[in-house]
Amino acid sequence: MSDAARPLVSGGAAPRDTDTPEDLTPAQRDLARIWETPPGWGRLAAVNHTVLGRRFIVAAFVFFAIGGVLAMLIRAQLASPRSAFVGPELYNQIFTMHGTVMMFLFAIPMFEGLAIYLLPKMLGARDFAFPRLTAFGFWCYVLGGTILVAAMLLGIAPDSGWFMYTPLSSGRHSPGINADIWLLGVTFVEISAIAAAVEFTVSILKFRAPGMSLSRMPLFGWYVLVTAGMMLVGFPPLILGSVLLEAERVLDLPFFDPARGGDALLWQHLFWLFGHPEVYIIFLPAAGLVSTILPVLVRREILGYAAIVVSITVMGFLSFGLWVHHMFTVGIPHLAQAFFSAASVLVAIPTSVQIFLWIGTMMAGRPSFSVPMLYLVGFFVVFVCGGLTGVMLAIVPFDWQVHDTHFVVAHMHYVLVGGFIFPMLAAAYYYLPHVTGREPLYGVGKLAFWLIFVGFNLTFLIMHLTGLLGMPRRYASFPTGYGWDWPNLISSVGGFITTAGFALFAIDMLFQLRFGRRTKPDPWGAETLEWAMPLRPRAYAFASLPTVSSRTPLRDAPGLGAALERGEGHLATPRNRWQETLVVDMASGEPEHIAILPRPTILPLLTALAIAGIVLALLFKLFWLAPAAAAAMVVLLLLWSRDAGQRQDHGLLDAGRGLALPLHAEVARPASWWGVVFLLAADATAFASLVFGALFLWLVAPGWPGPEVVPLPPAKALALAAAVLAAAVAGRAAVAALRRSVPAAALALWAAAVAEAAALGLALWLMLADVPAPTSHASLAMTAAFLAFVALHAGIGAVLAALGVWRCVAGYVSVRRAADLRIGVLWHDYTAATALLSLVFLAALPWLVPLRSLARP
Amino acid sequence: MSVRNLIAAGSAADLLLLCAGLVVWSSAFVALYAALSLGCAFGWDAVALGPVSLQRGILVGLWLAHLALIAALLVWLRRRAAPTEDPGRFLARATLWASVVALAVTAANYAPILGLSACL
Hints:
The structure holds two protein chains of two kinds. By secondary structure, chain A is an all-alpha fold. Chain A is built from 24 helices and six strands. Chain A is about 65% helix and about 5% strand. Chain A is globular, with a radius of gyration of 27 Å. Chains A and B meet through helix 8, helix 9 and helix 20 of A and helix 1, helix 2 and helix 4 of B.
């Protein structure tokens, strides 16, 4: 890679505000018609990544504003001792919702929105792999967030802290629906996060420009790839924990009740298994933006591309070895604490590698103090301070001293505001011309920066002292005489200054949108593909798809944007009203096939509404309504498949520039196959968390051994094992039978559907008839949970197999178009594997439980 | 120029290898935390195994086994034919360095096994 200072280049087409048909070539007019989002109510059917990315960003900013107002209420309350501004009940709701909104409804969705908007353009694709999934994720997020905020307006918001520790959040101590709103609402939003993680992983690995090998991929792609992988592994433990806690609250299954063999610490483990990686899930995409923006602003290619890739991969793993550092005070053996303490310190090294490489890049370049650069400097100062206090907190004796004090609050805000918000503000000014087609005017942005920077440090620097002076977190008021009065007042003044800065930023953005000058193409002289298009971007992003031969395609071909607009790339000529983009080999970027993406549809919204129906039915204890809403959800999900796939073989099709490729329906492993692989990886994490939970309770929880564990009836258990195995065999037989005929494959799929249905029935029968009184002890509740897991997967397997039969009959399946069947094989194999593991575990439980009596009390 | 000529060969397996050493680190974490918890619950620290306790013997054994696994991975990575063109060359170098880091992290992260009391 050349170390030469980089030239200014211009990669895009001519500036414009809105297109008129005369501005476009005939091919572009066709593309615009094919890719457009319908106007009016049709906007609800949007599946386009540019539209949905913008919506995610706007929605996340609205939630950020709500979280900000809550922060001001907290600071107003704590501005003086013995404050009577709000009472403890309301204060509990305010600080719980502040944390919940900022973590779940602002930070994650904001990064998702930016990634959804930017990534396809950076990678040289017209859209993501699963546009309807993007839309579904958006609606789940907005509806889940709306439920949480509506609860707050009604005065019944969650009030047990954003980490919802049991037993405070259990039914006995939080009898209202406040905690249910958190558990169901946040789980609803987490569906959106899992959807995004699958979307990102498959799209980054497969939906890139030809020639964009992994070694040529923009660093932001690497950052989001690692982040998405972390989300697939990090979010399922919390989803499982939330389901178990909701089951405890609604069904009285005592997973977390120490009086009946449960353990409150199990919740903490499951929560922080998610919660600590969450910090890195928030930080890494923001760091990806730093790695993207900073080299452009300092006119120097980034130093150490490979070192950064290795560093973020290492961070992705190490961040899962830190979770117990939130639990140093709960009584874990010193040696175990040392493991987590060491990992917490070690993770600072790959973080520092990136920081030094960024500093080195700045030193080697020619920095100019534009507004985005100002925010990046703010990021360096604030985040490094947060990182240093993080290392302090990783040291066990220090953590014991400041645990649950305002020192931790200050540290957390330095990390999250420094590591996420400052880079996001830099990105907001940097990408403003891209999103709006308008250039920023700098004066207001600089003033906003100084207000935010000074206000933030005023608020949180002194809060370290407040914490060191012993002031605990989450107290609605504090007495005078401990030296806490002045630090709190200063923090409150700083908080309001920060808010003024954010308000100014919001006003600035609105004014730029309305009054900013029209931008020229690629105003920053960047060299990545997102700038190789007219601004604002059109729905199809690229009129034709580029071929990439380095990490800096716009340096290689300064006129690339205009050439692509002229149709000199791949897939320049639209056909059959198809939304086409290219799919490539994961590592090499060699083109593999053409993907036809789905058109706008209302189905994602309707499906999300059906899930909202389930959530609301459970919240208001309308248990008769929940199955109806679940049935509606299943029917709607089945309707998604109508527009997926092809009813005839097309063979090789022209992809432009002499390339001929098959359609996605005619390859062995299309994007949907990979999507199911990654979804099952997330599911396997949930299953592993369930196994961990059961073993944790067996080994650690009080009240074990409980009542005698009755083994499952061998005949029924063996029948269940035989059923899931038969389904797996039938699924594979369907693929083999397809070589003979489609009806033979359909017949095998019928057998799979019947076997899965039998497995569903047997698992439910075992759970209802052979697990005596699961509310009496956690061992029995866990047995029921394993059987419910098997029943759920067998049920989905039955529906999938039946859907496969319909698709065979309807003409979607042929010898060349066999992906449906291969996806079925994945599901049936996975269901069989987890069911057999569950049955082995449950068979071992009657022998395992008495062993507990040998353990030390 | 055809696209095929512009790009070098590569495979998704290289991407999985990038994570291999760190997966072993994760396996060590789970195995050591589980063995420590089991040992403390069932009193393995009170059972002598030569000069050390059964608890410490098992922990050191697990630790060394994982270190050996990463070392073997490193030897294999060094010996295999290194691709001369990207992306294979890039991924091979990144994999080697990620595995070196995994070895160092596995050595440092669990070194307290050698000194700290296990179940206090």
